[in-house]
């Protein structure tokens, strides 16, 4: 299992492969929500905590929306579209300054929560590959 971070320039949008739908099938929605929750809890303690909602209530909503998205993208119910509309992920991230460092912290926090998951490596790898590449789309700043 390789949690490699693909080097990339800000402003590029390499083609993305969606995660293997078995990611959701084997974990189930609740485990995906737990995973996202743990990821956000790490972000909240990280050097990019300032990007995320400061209140507990806002933070819980952020977890919910993010999990809705990942469940949907893995072939589950369209929770995100129903509650938030079309994903337009890069546009939704544009109000936040996301540089190379922010991407690295965001991904490394995912590596921490994915590592102990007891699922087949190729399924886990497909999820990682998806966030590794799609996170490039969210970068929007060359400033430090
Ligand atoms: C490159 C590193 C990334 C950073 C620093 C980042 C940061 C953020 C921030 C600050 C927000 C707004 C607060 C919140 O709702 O949590 C957000 C929202 C969100 N992000 Fe990211 N993000 C990154 C990558 C990604 C990726 C790769 C995905 C999807 C694969 C993603 C999915 C989402 C979703 C679904 C939302 C909620 C949007 C909404 O409900 O309007 N993010 N992200």
From TrEMBL:
Keywords: Heme, Iron, Metal-binding, Transport. SUPFAM superfamilies: Globin-like. Heme binds at residue 65. InterPro entries: GlbO/GLB3-like, Globin-like_sf, Globin/Proto, Hemoglobin_trunc. The keyword Transferase does not apply. GO terms for molecular function: heme binding; metal ion binding; oxygen binding; oxygen carrier activity. Belongs to the truncated hemoglobin family. Group II subfamily. This is Globin. It comes from Malaciobacter halophilus.
């Amino acid at each position: 299992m390789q949690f490699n971070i693909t080097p990339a320039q800000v402003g590029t949008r390499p083609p993305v492969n969606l995660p293997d739908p078995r990611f959701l099938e084997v974990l189930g929605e609740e485990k995906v929500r737990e995973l996202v929750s743990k990821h956000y809890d790490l972000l909240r303690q990280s050097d990019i905590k300032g990007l995320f909602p400061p209140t507990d209530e806002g933070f819980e909503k952020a977890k919910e929306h993010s999990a809705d998205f990942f469940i949907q993208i893995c072939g589950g119910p369209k929770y995100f579209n129903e509650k938030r509309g079309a994903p337009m992920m890069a546009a939704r991230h544009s109000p936040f300054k996301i540089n190379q460092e922010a991407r690295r912290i965001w991904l490394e926090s995912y590596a921490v929560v994915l590592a102990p998951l007891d699922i087949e490596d190729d399924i886990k790898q497909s999820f990682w590959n998806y966030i590794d590449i799609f996170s490039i789309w969210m970068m929007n700043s060359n400033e430090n």
